[in-house]
Design brief:
This protein is mostly beta strands and 155 residues long. Helices cover 6% and strands 25% of the residues. It has a six-stranded antiparallel β-barrel with strand order 1-2-5-4-3-6. The chain is elongated and about 70 Å long. The N and C termini lie far apart (66 Å).
């Protein structure tokens, strides 16, 4: 019975952004293709430094996910921003790593998607499976803003 409340309703929204989740079946982008594996070097507060071979530009991994550790000590965090270093990626996450903060453990991370048509094409080469309406107007065209003229009351 609880699954009813977990469903997205309505299932398809008339909006500029994409209606599907990145790496889902409807999206069609394969998660393994964008997976990066490395080693957590340091963890200071919400900032993780991961030694890896990725040279992607700043904020490429923003809105993505990072998994640190394995088994019962696995910790998953959302990536708020990223920046490349020499042989590293510096990730700012939503909350600090608790169990694996000392470093030296495996880390796996994936980029995120902002749901925009341009990102779908440039980052994931997936424009054909975009499930939004990128060219619809941002504001409702049926609701025209009425301009007020402060001098209209004067005679």
């Amino acid at each position: 019975f609880g699954a009813i409340f977990e469903r997205k309703f309505p299932r398809f929204l008339m909006q500029q952004g994409c209606n599907v989740t990145l790496f889902s079946t409807a999206c069609g982008v394969t998660k393994a293709t964008y997976q990066v594996t490395g080693t957590l070097t340091t963890s200071i507060g919400n900032v993780l430094t991961i030694t890896c071979s990725s040279t992607q530009p700043a904020d490429y991994y923003a809105r993505g996910e990072v998994w640190v550790g394995s088994g019962s000590s696995l910790e998953r965090r959302l990536i708020l921003s990223s920046s490349p270093g020499t042989g590293t990626q510096v990730l700012t996450v939503d909350r600090p790593i608790v169990t694996n903060g000392a470093g030296g453990v495996s880390a796996t991370f994936w980029p995120g998607c902002d749901g925009q048509y341009s990102t779908c094409g440039s980052k994931f080469s997936n424009k054909l499976r975009f499930r939004g309406h990128p060219f619809m107007p941002r504001d409702n065209p049926a609701l025209k803003r009425v301009a007020t003229n402060p001098d209209a009351r004067k005679k």
